Amino acid sequence: MSIYELFKTKEVYIGLYILFINTAGFIITALDKYYAKTHRWRIAEKFFFIVSLMGGAAGVLMGMKVIRHKTLHKSFTIGIPFLFIMNIGCLLLYIYVFYLK
């Protein structure tokens, strides 16, 4: 399979989307930590949840753990892992419906 044929498959685009949205989730977590340390305008908490809901919960969760940011907020310590589990569930449902059924 050539690289051109590979990029015709939807799985590649789904994988790239997951990679992009999780990288974005990690970056916004790091950026918000930087903004907090430098006393700048912060990123709205609802934006973290929107990114997580769109599939970026793993990136936000990694950012929380690695950078140690937002780890004392109950809405984040419960909400982001819940959205991560939902993201995994949606991915498994997609695999089941389109590949295993």
What's the gist of this structure?
The chain is mainly alpha-helical and 101 residues long. The protein is built from four helices and no strands. GO terms for molecular function: nucleic acid binding.
Q: Would you mind describing this structure in some detail?
A:
With 101 residues, this protein is mainly α. It has one domain. The protein is built from four helices and no strands. The radius of gyration is 16 Å and the shape is elongated. It holds the Pfam family DUF1294.
Number of strands: 0
Number of domains: 1
Helix-strand string: HHHH
Q: How far is the N terminus from the C terminus?
A: 25 Å
Radius of gyration: 16 Å
| Major sheet | none
How many helices? The count is: 4
Estimate the global geometry from the Cα principal axes: elongated
- Helicity level: over 70%
Strand content: under 5%
Protein name: DUF1294 domain-containing protein
Pfam families: DUF1294 (PF06961)
InterPro entries: Cold_shock_CspA, DUF1294
GO molecular function: nucleic acid binding
